[in-house]
Amino acid sequence: MADDAPSKDVLENIASLQEEASRQPDDRDLQRKLAWALYGAGRFEEARDAFEKARERWPDDIEFHYGLGLSLKQLGQKEVALTEFEKALATGERSVQASMLRRLAEEQRNILMKGAA
Fold first, then answer.
1. Is residue 37 in some structural domain?
2. In 2-94, which residue ranges form alpha helices assigned H by DSSP?
3. Residue 53 domain-assigned (yes or no)
4. How does residue 22 score in pLDDT terms, banded at 50, 70 and 90?
5. Residue range(s) defining the domain that contains residue 77
6. Are 89 and 109 in contact (CB under 8 A)?
7. Burial of 18 by CB count in 10 Å (0-12 exposed, 13-18 middle, 19+ buried)?
8. Residue at 12 is within a domain
9. How many domains does the chain fold into?
10. 15: exposed, middle or buried (Cβ count in 10 Å: 0-12, 13-18, 19+)
11. Domain with 94 in it: what CATH number?
């Protein structure tokens, strides 16, 4: 059976991002990198906290709503995840990336509404 634990490099990267993010709380891209690094490492509770903190700071950023929804879904908090996907769909952000994230959020919302996830 393969070991799914994050590699030493991933853990070091997360530690570095956490240190930088604590020193630069206003750096949106840094907060985004940290949240996704935690999510990618399977540290869903920490990812949830990072996405939630960023979402509170930048409430119109679709990516923070989407990432929070995914983290909540992984933690089995499907109703709250559904709410975050709905919020992602309601953001007024207009960009190619926002359009893509809106489609992904809609797909996740539909999965949760059908109870398939």
1. yes
2. 8-23, 28-40, 44-57, 62-74, 78-90
3. yes
4. very high
5. 26-114
6. yes
7. middle
8. no
9. 1
10. exposed
11. 1.25.40.10
More confident residue, 3 or 24: 24
- Nearest-CA neighbor of 18 among 100, 43, 58, 90? 43
Q: Tens digit of pLDDT for each residue in 92-105?
A: 888 898 999 999 99
Which residues make Cβ contacts (< 8 Å) with residue 61, sequence separation at least 6?
A: 28, 54, 55, 91, 93
Q: For 46-90, what is each residue's pLDDT tens digit?
A: 999 999 999 999 999 999 999 999 999 999 999 999 999 999 999
- Please check the confidence at residue 8 and state whether its pLDDT lies above 60: yes
Neighbour-count burial for 73-98, b at 16+ CB within 10 Å, e otherwise: bbeebbeebbbbbebbbebeeeeeeb
Residue 9 forms part of a structural domain: no
> 42 — alpha (psi -120 to 50), left (phi > 0) or beta?
left
Please tell me the predicted confidence (pLDDT) of residue 1: 43
